[in-house]
Write a structure and sequence with these properties.
Elements lengths: L1 E3 L5 E3 L4 E3 L1 E3 L18
Antiparallel strand pairs: 1-4, 2-3
Length: about 40
């Protein structure tokens, strides 16, 4: 979960202004093969 505020605010079509919100990414259907690559910088 990511909180969008300050510079990252979301523009609401209902309010006609930028508002604070929470962004959540979900995976509904997982693929048969799921590869995650993690690199150390």
């Amino acid at each position: 979960m990511e909180i969008l505020d300050n510079e990252n605010q979301w523009f609401s079509p209902y309010c006609q202004q930028k508002v604070k919100c929470r962004k959540i990414n979900l995976i509904w259907d997982s693929p048969k093969v799921f590869i995650i690559l993690i690199k150390k910088i």
